[in-house]
From TrEMBL:
One of its GO terms (molecular function) is ATP binding. This is MYO1B protein. It comes from Acrocephalus arundinaceus (Great reed-warbler). Residues 1-307 form the Myosin motor domain. GO terms for cellular component: brush border; cytoplasm; microvillus; myosin complex; plasma membrane. Residues 184-206 are annotated as: Actin-binding. GO terms for biological process: actin filament organization; actin filament-based movement; endocytosis. Transmembrane segments: none annotated. Belongs to the TRAFAC class myosin-kinesin ATPase superfamily. Myosin family.
């Protein structure tokens, strides 16, 4: 209920993670349909870049204004920081404050005078400005760093490399907000070079107990994690997609024309395969390099048919092997019988 500088920083990181989730999933999902030439209904989704810009913009962002308050001469308090926010962010659609010039919040009794409210992706969060300036400064004075660096213990010395006289920097130490902003930027840059997979964990209740399902809590988490928009995009588009070659390789045993080998382009083979299986045309689309399947049940049907076909092929292999084994044994016995009969006739 009480949110200060620490929670503000945490929520900023969550906004950045949500932003990269949108870019790497929802946006990429729709761009892939365009690349593959697939016709579908475009789904509008909320891009929280505007919220991230409200916090991290180098000129008008909240963190930038907080750093400016910490660095400027004169009397600096949390109230002067809030006044600056009210001047710069008053017209921003995701910023709310009783002291701003925006009249629609003047009579909002749920918003105290010493607080501001940000409409995050997951919902509105109110922050108390008390302590913002002091916590953002978070200064470790240079003489303390030098004293710790002179310690005989190697671990303590390693924890304060800035105390090394050879590395003395006369610049003002970076604020806590700017350090965290730089760390988040490094994290985002690292994630964008990867191909991340997401596992979304939902808590059914706050009691950590079994067989209790709090519907309101679950719905809040689903909205917060962006799952509703993700599901809408998936439903409007296609649940499964795969390049033609591996698709044909996996399901070619379901069609006599493609089994055991298909001579020709993989796309033509997949087209023959789906036509032979009688899959409705509205259930799939052909892209430039991939086959797109709309509903999971179509994929489940293909997997069930493949499983049954593999069992049939295993039975066929077993039947042929048993036939070969019995015939080999029969031919050996027949050969032995001829040899025995020949020797018997010679003896007789």
């Amino acid at each position: 209920q009480d949110n200060s500088f620490e929670q503000f920083i945490i929520n900023y990181c969550n906004e950045k993670l949500q932003q990269i989730f949108i870019e790497l999933t929802l946006k990429e999902e729709q761009e892939e349909y365009i690349r593959e030439g697939i016709e579908w209904t475009h789904i509008e989704y909320f891009n929280n870049a505007i919220i991230c810009d409200l916090i991290e913009n180098n000129q008008t962002g909240i963190l930038a204004m907080l750093d400016e308050e910490c660095l400027r001469p004169g009397t600096v308090t949390d109230d002067t920081f809030l006044e600056k926010l009210n001047q710069v962010c008053a017209t921003h659609q995701h910023f709310e404050s009783r002291l701003s010039k925006c009249s629609r919040f003047l009579n909002d009794t749920s918003l105290p005078h010493s607080c501001f409210r940000i409409q995050h992706y997951a919902g509105k969060v109110m922050y108390q400005v008390e302590g913002f300036v002091d916590k953002n400064n978070d200064l470790l004075y240079r003489d303390l760093s030098q004293a710790m660096w002179k310690a005989n213990h190697s671990l303590i010395k390693a924890l304060f490399p800035e105390g090394n006289p050879a590395k003395i920097n006369l610049k003002r130490p970076p604020t806590a907000g700017s350090q965290f902003k730089a760390s988040v930027a490094t994290l985002m840059k690292n994630l964008q070079t990867k191909n991340p997979n997401y596992i979304r964990c939902i808590k059914p209740n706050d009691k950590k107990a079994a067989h209790i399902f709090n519907e309101a809590l679950v719905c809040h988490q689903i909205r917060y994690l962006g799952l509703l928009e993700n599901v809408r995009v998936r439903r409007a588009g296609y649940a499964f997609r795969q390049p033609y070659e591996p698709c044909l390789e996996r399901y070619k045993m379901l069609c006599k024309q493609t089994w055991p080998h298909w001579r020709g382009p993989a796309r033509d083979g997949v087209e023959v395969l789906f036509k032979e299986l009688g899959i409705p045309e509205e259930e799939f689309s052909f892209g430039r390099s991939k086959i797109f399947i709309r509903n999971p049940r179509t994929l489940f049907k293909l997997e069930d048919l493949r499983k049954q076909r593999l069992e049939d092929l295993a039975t066929l292999i077993e039947k042929i092997y048993r036939g070969w084994k019995c015939r080999t044994r029969f031919l050996l016995m027949k050969k032995c019988q001829i040899v025995i009969a020949a020797w018997y006739r010679r003896y007789a």
